[in-house]
Write a structure and sequence with these properties.
single chain; 123 residues; alpha+beta; 2 domains; 3-stranded antiparallel beta sheet; 3 strands; elongated
Length: 123
Amino acid sequence: MQYLLIINQNNGCDYTIGCGEAHEIFEASDSKAASQIAMRIVNEYCDLEELDILEPEEILSTVNENSESRRVDDIKLYQISCSVEMNLQRHFEDIENNAKAQLATDNEKREREQYTELKAKYE
């Protein structure tokens, strides 16, 4: 199963996790495994990924040093039940084509108004 992890950092944009929010999509066999993977990802974002090889004093020092600059304030974990591929290129092409059509319509309207004015003036 696929999971989506959203990581939030409330103290604004300090460029550590992408201006306050980061997203990770990963595979896991169940929600328990997903929770464990999510906490590993959080540790990576907080520069705490090597906790299992550190001594307790080093862990406390590392956590205290990172408490403000790399602090994660909130995480949300979602199980993805389905996903939909979206054609973004086609979307932008549609926007461009609609703008071009509107521009052509506006130009034709303006030209017809000018034609009507000039026709009335010289007849």
